[in-house]
Structure formats: C-alpha cells, structure tokens
Fold:
Amino acid sequence: MKTLIALLMTLSTFAAAQSVSTEKPGLAQTTAQKTTLSPAEQSITAARKEIEKKPAQFAGYNQLAIALSRRARETSDVNYYAQAEEALKKSLELAPGNMEGEKIHVWLLLGRHEFPTALEGAKILNKKVPDDVLVYGFLTDANAELGNYAAAEDAAQWMLNIRPGNLPGMTRAAYLRELFGDVDGAYELMDMAYQATVPTETEDRAWILSQMGHLRFVAGRTDDAENILKQALQLFPGYHYALGNLAKVRVTQKRYDDAVALLQQRYQAAPHAENIYDLAEALQLAGRDSEAKKAFAEFETKSLAESVRKDNSSRELVFYYADHAQQPAKALEVAKQEYAWRHDVYTLDAYAWALHVNGQDAEARKQIETALAVGIRDSKIFAHAGEITLKLGDRAAAQRYLEEAVSLHATGSEEARLALGQVSGLSGQRENGQR
Structure:
C-alpha cells in the first residue's frame, strides 16, 4: 500500500500526549537487554509491569495498547494490532468511556484502514474535546485516506495552530504537502520533525529518515535518497520502510538484483501481499522470470484472501491484473470496489488505469486528471495520464504528462520515456504527412 496510516504519526508522541507514564528499565536489567530491546519492546515491558502493579487501573492497559501499536509499526506485523485491541478492551471494561481509551480505539481503526468508521469516531471525539491535537490528527488521517483533502488540510492546520511545532502536526503537514505537490516543503517539515525527535527514539527517527529518503526519491534526487535511506538502516537495521524505499532507488539505478535482495529481506520481515508484489516486479526486471511468476502467484492468492478487509492490497491487485495477468475485467472489478469507498489520489490512479485497459479512456482521463488536480507530482501517475491521453489522441497533453514523468527520474519514468518516444514518432509522422 502506498500509505499506511502508521506513516503519519510518531507513536512515541501519541504516548507522550496521553500523559501515560513510561517506566524506565530497572537496575536489574542488563546493559545488553537495554540495547537489544527496541523502543516499542521497552514500552511493552514497562506497560506490563505497570499492569502487574495496578491491575485494576485502566491506564496501564492504554499504555500497553499504544506500545503494541508501536511494535506493529516497527515490525509491520498486524498481529500486534490484535493484541492492542485486547489491551484496549480491558481498559474500557475497567473505565468505560475513558478518553485515552476512546482515542486509542480510533487510532486502531485507522491502523486497520477502517477510515470511514474512524472518521466518524474522530468527529465524535472532536466535539467532546475540540482542542485535542491528536484528535485533529485522526481527522487528518481519515480524511486524507478517503480523498477529502480540504478537510484533511483544515484539520492539520488546526493541529499546528493549537500547538505550533508539534511532531504529529509536522509529519501530517509534510504528507499533505507532498500530495499537494510541494515536495521540497514536505522534506523541510520532515527534517524539522527529525531534528525535534530525541535520539533514543531510534525507530521514530528511522521512520522519519525513510520518509525523507522517499521525498528525495520522488523529487528525482536519487543520490540524496540513497544516502538518507542508508542512514535509516544504520540507525534501525533491517527496517522494512527503509528497505522498500531503497529498493526503489536500486530499480531506478537499474541495479535489479540488489533491489531483489532488499525486497526479499523486507518480505521475510513483513510477509504482506503488497511486499511480495514489489518483489515479483523486481524479479521480473532482473530477468528472473520463473521466480517472478511464482511470486506473482503467491501475491494473487494472498491479495484475494485479504480483499474482504479494508486493510488490503487491492491497488496492487488492480495493477497485477492490468499489467501482468492481462485480465482487464478483473482489474476493473477490483478497482470499482476500492473506488466505491475512497477517492484518494492513489485509488483514483488505479481506477483510471483499470478503466484505460478496458478501453474506457474518456472516463479514465477524468479520474486521472482529478487525481493530478490535487497537485501530486508522482512519475507513475504522470506516466499513466500520458498513456491515457495518448490513446484518446491528445498528443499535446500526452507529451506534457510524459515529460513530467521523465523529469522526475523515479518509478514510472523509464516507461514514460519509451511512451514519449512514441509520441515524438507520431508527431514526426504527422508533420511529414502535412508537407
């Protein structure tokens, strides 16, 4: 998935905002234990100790739910969300309606990508506590993922108005700036967030570096992206977000076997459907066709199994059916299911591409241009827009979109370069015919 909601907020900041105690390791804990436990694991240990001391108080269970959610981001293991829900259930049993628990409930809905339900929950909380920064963060998250960008922008601005310079506000504002086309501004905000994050929060800092690397990559600054992502991996070895972004850099550098190695490492750590899809595409680029075929088959099985959930890999499934399996009707069926409930730019892109491969190019153009109107500067979306408008015979628009895609030197740029050659060839033929 292009955006996991966990990408939009540092969980340590959530914990701090809840005023939940963070117990420090006892003197009996060895130095080795301190260094081998991740920040989330340390928080889980502290929360369980708090529960042991005060089992009848809800605060420890809230602390545990937050820590388990944080571990879910560290590992990309969704089983930790299920454990977090169990901890939260206990909190709400002990203190029905406690505000911290209600906020964690909305956070977990976002983690499961239940964006419409999370949005309604966040609106209810916002009426109860209209000056709560994190509730505005939830409104930002849910609205952004549903494609309600004006509402998302308004909520993010409230975060920064209420508490200027707060970390969740800065990371969300950065995400929206990227969507609105201000990639350099997004990078500046992420850099500010990085500088404001304490050195002991290694996973938070690695996450922010991963986002900074991503932003440099989408801006076409591949060398900068590579250096930043290496820093993230040095800080948090094997970090799945950094591995995935560095693999994109390697693909752009045409170091396909290196990309495969990175994506294999990520898939071993986080065996999700979307991760094996990326691996399958890299294997195909590396000329390892039999391995790619096997990986694509595994992806399809996994993706179909999770398609009944909101937290799915349906956008990847659309592109699999459209670009690899040559099953356009299935691509459109899956795309319509996602489009029925969310209209973010990446869903619009997938829907437009599914319409295109089914010959419905007029509607495809409408959807892809709606996505681009948000301001997003994504080479793959530009490339899709170019091919759609070319199919409609609008060579001027096709050339404009394809040139944008090529100029970004990122994912989709190579395909756009080939398509641009086709446009130039057609233009040349037309000029020769007119002479």
